[in-house]
Amino acid sequence: MKKVLCLALALCLLFAVLSGCKKTDNEESYFTVAIAQDLDDTLDPHLVVAAGTKEVMFNVFEGLLKPTPEGNLVPAVCSSYTVDGTKYTFTLRDGIKFHNGRPVTAEDVVYSITRCRDGGYVSAFSNISEVKGEGNTVTITLKEPMVEFAAYLTCAIIPRDYADQATAPIGTGPYKFVSRSAQENVILQAFDDYWGAKPKIRNIRLRIIENGDSLLMSLKSGAVDMASHLTSTQVKGLGDGFDIVQGNMNLVQALYLNNVRAPFDDIRVRQALSYAIDKHEIINHVFDGYGSPLGSSMYPAFSKYFLPELTDYYKTDVQKARDLLKEAGYENLSFRITVPSNYQPHMDTATVIVEQLKRAGINASIEPVEWETWVSRVYSGRDFETTVVGFDASTMTARALLERFGSANGKNFIGYKSEKYDELLKKALAEYDDAKQTEYFKAMERDLTENAANVYIQDLADLVAVRKGVSGVRFYPIYVLDLSGLEYEGK
Fold it and tell me: What is the distance, to the nearest Å, from the Cα of residue 105 to the centroid of all Cα atoms in its chain?
């Protein structure tokens, strides 16, 4: 009898793995989502740097306002607000709580906004002259009118009297942070007192899988239920157990160039690389046509600012690339492309770029590095020649994508310097008229393209594999992973 029971149990376990482990949503079950990198060392939302960390913590934190998949801003911590010139008045939502059960107060909002302003964590907040809270009302007064100010009010509201945000973060979002095992996983749980629609899937395990082959095996074995940012090759290898949902990553993938290091301080070299690389070939041959070609640091979801005419500003011309290199004195150009190895789309793009550059007599090699090394050495240390990576917009503004290339901006890791660009940025940030500001931002995009600040490739398609029987994948105009809409079908 014992043998029969053991055999039955073994067969059940085998069937569960092969069938994708259909789960019941109870306290013990987890819906497992693969992510390509560990989270930042700090989980404090005002200090987080990596887009991958912000993407996940979107589920934990909210601001006075929050974005919708349609690209609108709606009240979150506040229930309503009014704007009178430079004065913004917010009414806090009745009964809203932090994950530790404490009610959100006006003092918490004042603390959060002031902290971001005084710490320089949100550059737009330098325009705030005063933040006041009384009862359930918060008033923010600006020094000068600001067209896009509301978009920055997605900045996380956190409790003023809590000291452990870096390791045990507390917000107001649909999911609360439970635990973290470095390089292994992060556990989130639905917040029972959430003010909005409660998540349908209670327990989420975010599992860190940096290797693309390991990710594919984990999906096929049933160990992982969902994964974003897959390549078309990975999708083809999945089999029938998954639905594939397509969106866009909403980021600017490019061959980013260190503009202060020779030979990339020479515009002719940068332009030669732009002529030598065929972005359409990369998209068609590597990504099966998925992806939107780009010509500057703006992606199509921001249609108001996007300039499609810049996409083919540098039409592929190998001979022109050779001529420019000869003119610049770099006929035998060699350099390294440093790539975060945990992002397979960037590795695949770099691989094709190496082959394309050979046609122009350029010898490029790939240096794969771990994500932490990329952040410390390339982004923070500026110790690189070129790199393939993608940058997102943290808020739904053109400023979020373009401000980083101002010569004095601390995020300008490529060292781009253009007096014209700096002047346009200054005018854009001081402009009160939306239409005029938009034209300044477009002129900044043209400046980046004309000076070949980087070799722009694409806004990658976001191919998401989700186990059959689960629905609710949602895409946004910014780079986020929204888990709150997921649900088991038929429940």
Answer: 30
